[in-house]
Amino acid sequence: MRLAQRDDLRPFVERAAHLHPSDLADVLAALDQPTRARAVAELPTEAASLALAEMEATEHPEQMLLAVGPGYAAELVELLPTDDAADIVAELAPEEREAVLAEVEDRAAVERLLTYPEDTAGGLMTTEVVTVPESATLAEAVEAIRRQRGEDEQLFQVYAVDPAGRLVGTVPIARLVVAAPGRRVAEVMEPSVAVVRPAQDQEQVARMMARYNLAAVPVVDDAGRLLGLVTFDDVVDVVEAEMTEDLLKFGGVSPTEDLAAPWHVAVTRRLPWLYVNLLTASLAGTVVYLFQDTLARVVLLAVWMPIIAGMGGNAGTQALAVTVRRLALRQLPRYGAAAVVRKEMLVGMVNGLAGGLVVALVAALLGERPTLGLVVLLAMWGNLIVAGFAGAFIPLLLERLGADPAVASSIFVTAFTDVCGFLLLLGLGTALLL
């Protein structure tokens, strides 16, 4: 990075030639905008293009295109795989995008990908697919592959198509090498394990590729014509993005928040959820207010309130995490939602009894009257049953209502367990201790 900040960029360019594109992308992302523009302008076009493809969306690779001008930007875009080119160009404003694409020799492929939503198979796919006619001999197929792929380009899969361009099968590369050159492609091809439509959601595509251990999955239109393919490296990015989104939503943070955004942007994204949390937390405070006379007469109950609420919150979060994961992976059991709720309530019942016995024993060792130990035991037991129910039922209900269960479930589960925990502890205390 220090080399890139010098007036003489020759040492930086020499060093960059030995860096992996991912490492070079990290270096460029760490530079300020003017320095980055100078560095990219001095780098060999191929090296700059490879680094551009490895940059994360949050590092704004499209700003590199703006910095170097439309002519050089078009050269970089032409060297990128079509899917990467479309992803980066899509982030430009319409007039900026047109200025770059106007200089691109073959802009049709990029523009075609821009018509698909970015979170679909069409938005992920590359149109650079190796195809061979099903009627060709294997010798002709090998020649066709050589024409379509250079020596240094990756070859994920070879697909057989009919004269109309419809996908008819997958050609194992090993068979192209070992089978007799005179055999026909139709004789050695295999049916495609899976295909996807361009409108299919990216999560479904990722799940399918993981299920069948595929390096690439073909994308076909309604007529079966081969449009492109989604490769495993794009799916890895999808899985990472989806996991990050779910993690942020699970914590009550907007998934649209840019991790590199300034503090005031983070405040505007998070404050609304904190207001919701403030409202739900006020419900627990109301319960305590209603039982203030009980607390005044049995002050020791206040010692156990955070313990009952904390245990319930943790148990509810455990049930919530498991249930949200089930929904994300479409792994609901045979008997559906009711079975999930019953299981989590049973887990809460056993854990609550085990935890309640421990706290009752602690209360007894501290010299408290046995009735207080019984109140704490029953409150702990009941609240963990409630936590298991809430942690499973609330995300399932939100899913049924069409809402994202990862967004607000944790806030409502915590509020539910706090309110029920305080009600059980203070209600039982009022009934048994006064």
Can you walk through the features of this model?
- The chain is mostly helical.
- The chain has 3 domains: 113 residues, MgtE N-terminal fold; 102 residues, CBS-domain (Roll); 171 residues, Orthogonal Bundle (Tetracycline Repressor, domain 2), CATH 1.10.357.
- 65% of the residues lie in helices and 6% in strands.
- It is built from 21 helices and 5 strands.
- The strands form 2 sheets. Strands 1-2-3 form a 3-stranded mixed beta sheet. A two-stranded antiparallel ribbon has the order 4-5.
- Helix 18 runs parallel beside helix 20.
- It is elongated, with a radius of gyration of 30 Å.
- The mean pLDDT is 83.
Shape: elongated
How do the strands line up in the largest sheet?
A: 1-2-3
Terminal Cα separation, in Å? 71 Å
Taken as a percent bin, the fraction of beta residues is 5-15%
Helical residue percent?
Answer: 55-70%
Instruction: Please state the second-level CATH architecture of the largest domain.
Output: Orthogonal Bundle
| Low-pLDDT windows of residues | none
CATH superfamily of the largest domain: SLC41 divalent cation transporters, integral membrane domain
Q: Over the alpha carbons, how many angstroms does the gyration radius reach?
A: 30 Å
Number of domains: 3
Give a short synopsis of this structure.
The chain contains 21 helices and five strands. The chain is mainly alpha-helical.
